[in-house]
Amino acid sequence: MTAQLIDGNALSRQLRADVSARVTALKARDITPGLAVILVGENPASQVYVRNKVKACEDTGMHSLLERWPATLSEAELLARVDALNRDATIHGILVQLPLPAHIDAQKVIEAISPAKDVDGFHIASAGALMTGMPGFWPCTPYGCMKMLESIGYELKGKHAVVIGRSNIVGKPMALMLLQQNATVTICHSGTQDLKALTLQADVIVAAVGKRNVLTADMVKPGAVVLDVGMNRNDEGKLCGDVDFDGVKEVAGWITPVPGGVGPMTITMLMVNTLESAEGLRAA
Ligand code: GUN
């Protein structure tokens, strides 16, 4: 192995220790940061994610409110819950776990969350703030990737970053964050004609497609930084990312593993956003 690992668990521990200290300082001023998590239905993956988010709140000393609703909850009822939480002074962040049942318009629900409590960073106001460089909440997964680059002291100015994937949650905000640090950014997607020709030019590659082996060793410039956002299962049912880790680690300079890479950083940045909402630092 030539690549150095970027350990998301170790970095998360460091960042969460800082969050805990700041939570303690806020509590001394009678403010306890509070996160409301709404789960509708019984999606097994969502139940695990939600449990981990609530546990992270407990570990960092924050208040959490978990609302579980049956899949039959109506859109109007969910909007009414979001409205109540918008007005609840003990709650600084509101997260509606996705996906939602098909009869509920997820975008409508996201837009109902107050941008001041949009700790997922999914509201149009948050997206617009990121695009224009104004204060606002950043989506947690790409924000975590930026923290990983910061942790290795990586200077993005003038570097070529290639983002594979164009989702609203990861790919697009990732590209904007890299651009804000003066990288030259290319966004690749399913319609990209020669992905390998582009990734071979990249100093930084972020793989965020949701498909195994999107990035293989022959596609990576020696020494490049590779961040793997994917969460897939291989044929043996083991968790794996979008990157062929065993091959790419022989070529890359830095690489994030799956599990233990970007995954833990997502929840850590949710804690940071919720804390900073309570501190009054980040609201759009
Ligand atoms: N479902 C999968 N990931 C996420 C996330 O980061 N936030 C929300 N709200 N739902 C998700």
Written account of the structure:
It is a single chain. The strands form 3 sheets. The chain has a 6-stranded parallel β-sheet with strand order 1-11-8-7-5-6. Strands 3-2-4 form a 3-stranded parallel β-sheet, sandwiched between helices. It has a two-stranded antiparallel ribbon with strand order 9-10. Helices cover 40% and strands 15% of the residues. The chain is globular. It has 2 domains: 30-115, Leucine Dehydrogenase, chain A, domain 1 (Rossmann fold, 3-Layer(aba) Sandwich), CATH 3.40.50.10860; 140-262, Rossmann fold. With 284 residues, the protein is of the alpha/beta class. The chain starts with a strand and ends in a 5-residue tail after the last helix. α7 links the parallel β5 and β6. Guanine binds at residues 49, 95-98, 120, 140.
Q: Please state how the strands of the largest beta sheet are arranged side by side.
A: 1-11-8-7-5-6
- The tally of strands reads 11
Radius of gyration (CA) equals 19 Å
Strand content: 15-25%
Derived structural class: alpha/beta
- Give a short account of the largest sheet: 6 strands, parallel
Ligand inventory = guanine
What is the overall silhouette? globular
The H-and-E topology, N to C, reads as EHEHEHEHHHEHEHEEEEHEH
Describe how the helices and strands are arranged.
Blueprint: E1 4-5, H1 8-27, E2 34-40, H2 44-60, E3 63-69, H3 75-86, E4 93-96, H4 106-112, H5 124-132, H6 140-151, E5 160-164, H7 171-180, E6 184-188, H8 195-199, E7 204-207, E8 225-228, E9 232-233, E10 239-240, H9 245-248, E11 254-255, H10 262-279
Parallel strand pairs: 1-11, 2-3, 2-4, 5-6, 5-7, 7-8, 8-11
Antiparallel strand pairs: 9-10
Helix pairs in contact: 1-10, 2-10, 6-7, 6-10
Bound molecules: guanine.
Guanine binds at residues 49, 95-98, 120, 140.
